[in-house]
Amino acid sequence: MTYPDPTSSGTGSPEPAPRARPTGTGAGRLLVAVYGVLALAATARGAYQVGTKLDEAPVAYVLSLLAGVVYLVATVALARDARRTAWATVGFELVGVLTVGVLSVVDVGDFPDETVWSQFGAGYGYVPLALPFVGLWWLWRTGRPVPRTVPSEPPHAPVG
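Predicted structure:
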């Protein structure tokens, strides 16, 4: 007895492998929009601070600019479904917000002024703390293959 090839649609040609869902579609559009808003806010804030008062709090201001660039790259990566870049930038963002968050609470002297990631993003409603977790979850969720529906047999017309 022969069994049908599971990779075939029955037409003799193999079906393509299941594809992951694009990251920037569906609910991912909202995620891209939030990243975009944060990218603009953090980059503008960091650029202004570095350009006008870098000597007051260089670590904090450079970190704000760095955060803005990370959000900008993550926004583009998520919008264009560049998964490797998205995983790297969102992972870096998570490490950054947790590290800077802890350091800004423990050692206030290094952060005389706030950054985007200070106190875990308190100045931005803790969105910088929640966003990388949502971003990583979304990358994981959309990275799984889309379940395929098996076409059903057309109903047979009664004979006679």
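Summary: The CA atoms of residues 34 and 131 lie 8 Å apart.
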